[in-house]
Design goal:
The complex is a heterodimer of chains A (197) and B (86).
Chain A (H helix, E strand, L loop, with lengths): L3 H9 L3 H20 L5 H18 L9 H16 L38 H4 L2 H13 L3 H12 L4 H8 L3 H23 L4
Helix pairs in contact in A: 1-2, 2-3, 2-4, 3-4, 4-8, 7-9
Chain B lengths: L1 H7 L2 H12 L5 H13 L1 H17 L9 H18 L1
Helix pairs in contact in B: 1-3, 2-3, 2-4, 3-4
The chains are: A mainly alpha (197), B mainly alpha (86).
């Protein structure tokens, strides 16, 4: 598979196939991210389409200071935030949200209702082909801002620096959102796959 | 000293440190405290393993391939952009 940098060069020289390769590489990721900003899949598709156009239009101006992927996702987030009707920035990160329901600890802060075992159960519980779908559904239950960070970090495997730059958030906020998102997702997995002691 | 360190951190606090721990964002002292707690707490050790598994499962999501129609749409989009350029 050609590296992004090479595709960028080919794209600049007018290679249509390079564009299609980029679309194949990022379209689905972009859609998933866009959906967390806007109310419907249809709107998300428009946002992604606009992003591709913005990429093409910005090709000459792109200086390559960030990676192509970071640049692409930054455009996407900007397009989505402009389009998005969701009040994206109104959710304060400062609101406390414990990683685990406080009711599961005793008064000394030790586990009263310890984590149920589920790791071993995952592969057996769900048919291999359906596991990804179920994970995706559970991930959709995360609040949008947490989902964005979890998708970028753990699905797209971007670095924390890249995520901060794409979402235009501070490193501290990135970590808080990541922590809450992963914690909540763990809770959902426990609910889904747990119950085996 | 070790006992004291362990008593320092309770489970409810430990679960809040997991991400900082995995991100390498804890100070050396805090990291030692966290690890000392884990060493004496099977539940928090399990919890940490589950957070790692959560990350691994998220990473299993794969991208669906584009349908031929979708692909054509993008070729079309690209050509439209090219013609704008000329």
């Amino acid at each position: 598979m050609a590296a992004d940098g090479e595709l960028l060069l080919r794209l600049r020289s007018g290679d249509e196939r390079a564009f299609v390769s980029l679309v194949e590489r990022y379209q689905e990721q972009m859609l998933r991210l866009a959906i967390s900003f806007v109310p419907s899949r249809a709107v998300a598709e428009e946002v992604v389409q606009d992003t591709w156009l913005a990429l093409l239009r910005g090709l000459d101006a792109f200086e390559g200071r960030s990676s192509l992927k970071t640049w692409l996702f930054s455009i996407l987030v900007n397009q989505a935030r402009t389009t998005g009707t969701r009040e994206h920035r109104s959710v304060p990160v400062a609101d406390p949200e414990p990683a685990v329901d406080p009711a599961r600890f005793d008064t000394s802060g030790s586990w009263a209702d310890p984590p149920e075992h589920w790791i071993e159960a995952v592969e057996g519980r769900v048919e291999a082909g359906k596991l990804a779908d179920r994970i995706r559904e559970l991930m959709d239950e995360l609040p949008a801002r947490q989902r964005e960070v979890v998708i970028l970090r753990d699905v797209e495997e971007m670095s924390s620096e890249e995520v901060c730059s794409v979402l235009a958030i501070s490193d501290g906020n990135q970590r808080v959102l990541l922590h809450r998102g992963r914690s909540r997702l763990r809770q959902l997995f426990e609910g889904e796959f747990g119950g085996v002691r | 000293m070790r006992l004291l360190l362990r008593r320092d951190l309770v489970c409810q606090q430990a679960v809040e440190l997991v991400t900082d721990y995995l991100e390498g964002a804890l100070s050396r002292r805090a990291r030692r405290r966290f690890e000392a707690h884990l060493a004496g707490c099977p539940h928090c050790t399990e919890y940490l393993a589950q957070m790692r598994e959560t990350i691994r499962l998220a990473g299993r999501l794969e991208l669906e391939d584009l349908t031929p129609e979708q692909r054509d749409d993008f070729v079309e989009l690209y050509r439209r952009w090219r013609s704008e350029q000329e």
